[in-house]
Amino acid sequence: MAKAYWIARIDVHNMDGYKDYVAQNGAVFHQYGARFLVRGGQYETKEGTSRSRNVVIEFKDYETALACYNSPEYQRLVAMRSPHSEGDLVIIEGYDGPQP
């Protein structure tokens, strides 16, 4: 079964307000077995547009990734985060087929 990922690109407008979201999201992600693969960090945009913060979170499967996002616990965090940031979030199923 293929893993799944949240791929988020975020611009934070109010870091003080955003810090509350960061401080509280770990408990929700832990509940769904999520694991950060990318959480900020150095980057270089080679093509297209970018935002100031990039995050990739791994889940055991697509259903779990969706369930986490749609959970009341995470939706409370979305409401907490939204006034302080703007971003793009894609939930995507990983590929686990043959490789070149």
From TrEMBL:
Coiled coil feature spans: none
The DUF1330 domain is annotated at 3-95
The protein's organism comes out as Bradyrhizobium denitrificans
Q: Which SUPFAM superfamilies match?
A: Dimeric alpha+beta barrel (SSF54909)
Extract the Gene3D superfamilies matched here. Answer: 3.30.70.100
Q: What is this protein called?
A: DUF1330 domain-containing protein
Instruction: Identify the Pfam families for this entry.
Output: DUF1330
